[in-house]
Amino acid sequence: MGQTIHPIRVRSRRGFTLIEAALTMIIIGVGFFSMLELYATCSMQNRFSGNMTTAMLLANNVQEAMAGATFNDPLSGKLVFGPEAGETLATFDDVDDFDNQTFNPPIDSMRQPIEELSKYSQSVTVVPVYPNRLSSNSGSTPEISDSTYTGAVRITVTIVYTGQPETAHVAHRMSWIKMND
After folding, report:
1. CA-CA 20 to 30 A from 62: which of 4, 34, 126, 142?
2. Could you tell me the pLDDT band of residue 29, with boundaries at 50, 70 and 90?
3. Is 80 exceeded by the pLDDT of residue 158?
């Protein structure tokens, strides 16, 4: 008698098992959501950088707007600190005229309002400092009154951004010293 040979059945695989498909979906899902989180973080950082760049430009605009102003008023000299009676932004002629001024909408270097940036405001303070001690008058309690002529002032421009929701925060602050020539 001869032996009968039974063929061995080989199962060929066609496709993925349910577990393999589930693992693939989990891996792809984790990668996708990680990319979404990265995109959101990059978008926020890009928005923050744009706001900072705009704030720096607005602070420089004030500095440029003051560049042509004299140290002392051409008419009243050292008698008046701050804007003289009847002066407006267009007629400010000395640096202390800008003291305690807030511009909203902000102004450009030609002292013209920039309406499309109305979420920003520029606040300017001008305080006298001692020429040999430039850090004077930097605390919250002034050690030199505005009426004291020292021959030097510290000008500080603070840019405030009011975003959504209506919360204001300081976007940039810039200071410089101007001395009487």
Report:
1. 142
2. very high
3. yes
Unique residue bearing structure tokens 């405001």: 121
CA-CA-CA-CA dihedral for 15, 16, 17, 21, to nearest 10: -150
CB 140 within 8 A of CB 167: no
Q: Which residues pair with 173 in a beta bridge?
A: 158
Q: How far apart are the first and last CA of the chain?
A: 125
Q: Which range among 83-87, 118-122, 143-147, 162-166 has the greatest average pLDDT?
A: 118-122
CB atoms within 10 A of CB 150: 17
Lowest mean pLDDT among 35-49, 101-115, 134-148: 134-148
Burial 72-103 (b: 16+ CB within 10 A, else e): bbeeeeeebbebbeeeeeeebebbbbbbebeb
Say if CB 114 and CB 106 are below 8 A apart. yes
Q: How far apart are CA 156 and CA 100, in angstroms?
A: 10
Cα separation, 128 vs 99, whole angstroms: 11
| Residue-level pLDDT at 13 | 64
Q: What is the pLDDT of residue 94?
A: 92
Give the tokens for residue 181. Answer: 């020539």
Q: Compute the 3-state secondary structure of the chain and give helix, strand, coil in percent, each to the nearest 5.
A: 35, 25, 45
- Number of residues in the chain: 181
